[in-house]
Amino acid sequence: MALVPFLNFAADVAPHVEGCPSAVIAATIRKMFIDLCQRGKIWRVPLTSVTLSSGTYAYALASPIAETEVSAILNAQWYKATTSTVINNLEITTSEVINSMYPDWPNTAVTGEPRALFQAAPSAFNIAPVPGSIDTYTVKLTAAIRPTTTAVNVEDSLMNEFRREWFHGALCELMTMPNRVWSNDKLATYHGKQWTYLLSSARARANKGFGRTAINVRPRPWA
């Protein structure tokens, strides 16, 4: 993987929005790529394993890629130090479900083996029940990540792989800006439809693990 500036991709969009500053184009491309990652979950990575501590239910989440953050936990498993070859699944749920399943949570006096987690923020997740001291538990996570809103750089192969998606999204966003020399409501509607269609396709493709099985979508003309 190689990280390159969002600004590198501004030239792809600039001919369609004459007069728009490159910095504005780059910021808009970043915004739409963040949205693509958030909604399409196209950028998926394994996270560093987390060893749980007795009596501690809150843990930090960190993306392994610079200038990115965790948008969603996609898969979670755990194992004991004493039986490390036995892998158990963790339910990924919400705080409301956790509180319903474990009314005493997060009472640190009521502990047990990990059964479920929820993402409390891009940088944190919580475990239930509160881990006990009978054994040492390790959690393995796979997550979808997205660039931060201040990111300067992005992974170039993903930008190239999903060029059509962010291209149409950026043009729709730029052309709907009011009272600009590049504003164009008619073309914005066209690019918006392309963006919506391609986002759905990207999400389906990511869920299939980028396999070669055909996705049942109808292609539309490329601008």
Residue stretches low in confidence (pLDDT < 50, at least 5 long) are: 210-223
Biggest beta sheet summary: 5 strands, antiparallel
- Beta strand count: 13
Strand content: 25-35%
* Overall pLDDT score: 92
Q: Can you tell me the overall shape?
A: elongated
Helix percent reads: 25-40%
What pattern of helices and strands is seen along the backbone?
A: EHHEEEEEEHEEEEEEHHH
How large is the radius of gyration? Answer: 21 Å
The CA-CA distance between the termini, in Å, is: 28 Å
User: Number of DSSP helices?
Assistant: 6
Alpha-beta content class: alpha+beta
Please explain how this structure is put together:
By secondary structure, this protein is α+β, with helices and mostly antiparallel strands. The strands form 4 sheets. Strands 2, 3, 5, 6 and 12 form a 5-stranded antiparallel β-sheet that branches. A hairpin with a 2-residue loop joins strand 9 and strand 10. Helix 2 crosses helix 5 and helix 5 packs antiparallel against helix 6. The C terminus is likely disordered.
